[in-house]
């Protein structure tokens, strides 16, 4: 099969690679669309992957082309892939029953071969069944939507009755996913960013309130979310909150996050809650996710829909920020 293979930092190529075979409860998926995630970039350019050679790609959809011998899903089932495979036996798994608390998980697309290829081997329990093939593009967003949903759940906002005033910092794919769910659950959401390009995408997916970071003067937000990874956004997210507000951090800052003394004191005096957030947990969320995926305007987030041959140049552009981009999808539907 054709696959985009990573050998080490800065060493990757599209080439022939062994096609996987179904075994036990693992099925072979013919990949349709695979998204490039921000977390893939350091793997391609700085660190390499967990082992080598390896096929990255953990945000993808496809159709089962070889059923798992011990599975239930038949050939032809359209699916989205949930990448994490918890061990199920460690302290983290048993105590918290959350996949991202596992101490020795496998991950499709960083520890196991992933979706930047024509075919991928996936454990059946990691397949999310889509309504039909018309949802395959949305399916490539399931991990993103899951992370956004988890952030919203972590904040506690959906457990509180009535519409709440919430702000999301960062209109990248994760921030937009959080904003999407907040609006989906009927909350009053404002998306904040420094880039008009990103705020335009927020509007295109149906977010009514968007504002430039420097123009944000409104206060009294009951919930704030930080999805930009910028230290300045952490400070502002605290400053605009109402007393007893909840601040959920999702963005990763590559530098130290410094909170000024006055901001820290504000957080204490107003008795705010700070919540960490990592990964996702889809248990019990099947129905919500089915509805969320169906209504999500995925195409509006797709800034680039590329052939596998075009992936190499795009990675360079993304790494060097030589063009605007939101979600870059690799289209494997034409490959046979
Ligand atoms: Zn990702
Ligand atoms: Zn575990």
Keywords:
336 residues; alpha/beta; Quinone Oxidoreductase, Chain A, domain 1; Rossmann fold; 7-stranded mixed β-sheet; 6-stranded parallel β-sheet; 18 strands; globular
Beta-strand content estimate: 25-35%
CATH topology of the largest domain: Quinone Oxidoreductase, Chain A, domain 1
Tell me the radius of gyration.
20 Å
Secondary structure tally: strands: 18
Order of helices and strands: EEEHEEEEHEEEHHEHEHEEHEHEHHEHE
> Which percent bin holds the helix content?
25-40%
CATH homologous superfamily name of the largest domain? Medium-chain alcohol dehydrogenases, catalytic domain
Quick one: overall form? globular
Total number of distinct structural domains: 2
List ligands, each type once: zinc ion
* Broad CATH class of the largest domain: Alpha Beta
Distance between the termini: 9 Å
Major pleated sheet: 7 strands, mixed
Q: SSE layout and pairings?
A:
Elements lengths: L1 E7 L2 E6 L9 E11 L3 H8 L6 E2 L3 E8 L11 E4 L2 E2 L5 H6 L9 E2 L11 E5 L3 E3 L6 H4 L2 H14 L9 E5 L3 H12 L3 E6 L2 H9 L4 E4 L8 E6 L4 H9 L1 E9 L11 H9 L3 E4 L9 H10 L2 H4 E5 L4 H10 L6 E5 L5
Parallel strand pairs: 11-12, 11-14, 12-13, 14-15, 15-16, 17-18
Antiparallel strand pairs: 1-2, 1-4, 3-5, 3-9, 3-18, 5-6, 6-10, 7-8
């Amino acid at each position: 099969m054709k696959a985009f293979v990573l050998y080490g930092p800065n060493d990757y190529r599209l080439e022939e690679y062994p096609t996987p075979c179904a075994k036990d409860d693992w099925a072979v998926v013919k990949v349709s669309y695979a998204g490039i995630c921000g977390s893939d970039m350091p793997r391609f350019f700085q660190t390499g992957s967990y082992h080598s050679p390896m096929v990255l790609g953990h945000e993808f959809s496809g159709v089962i082309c070889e059923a798992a011998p011990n599975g239930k899903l038949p050939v032809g089932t359209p699916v989205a892939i949930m990448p994490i495979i918890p061990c199920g036996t460690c302290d983290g798994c048993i105590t918290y029953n959350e996949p991202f608390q596992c101490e020795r998980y496998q991950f499709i697309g960083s520890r196991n071969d992933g979706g930047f290829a024509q075919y991928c081997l996936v454990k059946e329990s990691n397949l999310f069944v889509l309504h039909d093939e018309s949802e395959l593009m949305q399916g490539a967003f399931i991990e993103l939507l899951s992370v956004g949903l988890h952030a919203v759940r972590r904040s506690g906002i959906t457990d509180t009755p009535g519409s709440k005033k919430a702000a999301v910092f960062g209109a990248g794919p994760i921030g937009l996913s959080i904003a999407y769910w907040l609006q989906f659950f009927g909350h009053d959401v404002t998306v904040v960013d420094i880039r008009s390009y990103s705020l335009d995408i927020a509007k295109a997916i149906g977010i009514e309130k968007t504002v430039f970071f420097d123009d944000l003067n409104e206060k009294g937000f009951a919930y704030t979310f930080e999805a930009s990874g910028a230290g300045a956004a952490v400070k502002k997210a605290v400053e605009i909150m109402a007393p007893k507000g909840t601040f959920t951090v999702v963005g990763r800052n590559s530098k130290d996050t410094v909170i000024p003394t006055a901001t820290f004191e504000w957080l204490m005096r107003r008795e705010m809650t700070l919540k960490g957030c990592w990964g996702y947990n889809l248990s019990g969320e099947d129905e919500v996710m089915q509805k969320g995926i169906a209504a999500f305007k995925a195409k509006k987030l797709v800034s680039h829909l590329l052939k596998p041959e075009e992936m190499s140049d795009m990675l360079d552009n993304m790494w060097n920020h030589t063009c605007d981009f939101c979600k870059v999808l690799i289209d494997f539907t034409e490959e046979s």
